What we know:
With 424 residues, the protein is an alpha/beta fold. It has 14 helices and 16 strands.
Amino acid sequence: MDLVIRNATLPDGRQGIDIAIEDGRIAALGANLAVRGAQEIDAGGDLVTPPFVDAHFHMDATLSYGLPRVNQSGTLLEGIALWGELKPQLTQEALVERALHYCDWAVARGLLAVRTHVDVCDDRLLAVEALLHVKKQVAPWLDLQLVAFPQDGVLRSPKAFDNLKRAIAMGVDVVGGIPHFERTMADGAESVRLLCEFAAEKGLRVDMHCDESDDPLSRHIETLAYHAHRLGLHGRVAGSHLTSMHSMDNYYVSKLLPLIREAGVAAIANPLINITLQGRHDSYPKRRGMTRVPELLAAGVDVAFGHDCVMDPWYSLGSGDMLEVAHMGLHVAQMTGQEAMHACFMAVTQTPARILGLEGYGLEPGCHADLVVLDAGSTIEAIRLRAARRYVVRRGRIVSQAPPAHARLDLPGRPAQVDFRLRR
Ligand SMILES: [Zn+2]
């Protein structure tokens, strides 16, 4: 075997598991495997998980914070305006450099798959070219999936639909949209129809920025679910943000949730961004704005947490740490029960892997040997500690390592160390 990891705890709580890796795939997994590795890692009971997956990101904007100026109001709309000012100044070299730098951060944090929206409203399609180039370059370390995103509205911006089609022809993977940014509710609904029909015709997945507002009457998610169902796109469509659902009438939501479930539409909440950008027109009480995560999960809908932004016109913080994202999601949604906290970990690992349609993801024989050894004893503890990534493995190769933080106060007569680890 190329690599054997000993004594792992798995996300489902199984303990004392060895994982044998050969030719970039998991060859065997079980207790006390009688195999030898050219290289061996003693996990010492630490959690070993498939890698983190970010279902919603903007890699064309990342690390551009302060260019050409900072977002003074901190609002979504000033962020969009600011991005519009920056766009004509973008160069391909700078886009590639920033994206690669972010990928360094991502790999170090065990984030090995990212779905990134890329703005197609710049007629030059500079960002599309840059990110297609980056996607190819970083493939040995992480999977990038690109979404053709008409930031200024596919109907509102005259050339957006043509540009989107060109981006897809160039190799972009997923069809995006932003119905709540079109001029009217009717235009928003029309954009959803147009884009879903285009995706169905091309056999592509769909991921729309959908209802990213506090407007209780913004109902593009209903239209998205309707067309997904009508066109047979079950399991291939995601609604990103869905923040208006936070403010919707409860009776209406009771009718909406089963529709989303029947249409096989997934939900992607972005807790760091939703909690900072929504509720801005409120005085007090101030709405949280994040979509109804526990209720969507209870209805059987796949829910992932995305990072959305790191140091860009919309958000000045972030570091590519999906445990920070899960931590915020857990708090905002008040998901503090044991199963609910575990679900928050799944929302940054297995669920987004399913939404992206990643091949060979997971800890089963035959899967890609992509995994992370965390300095934690369980998924819940990983979130609590935003645990150090002791080892990050991609296709059987160690691509990043970090020592666990450790201190012990050397006091006379102090008893032996007590294990405060949380296990499932
Ligand atoms: Zn976004």
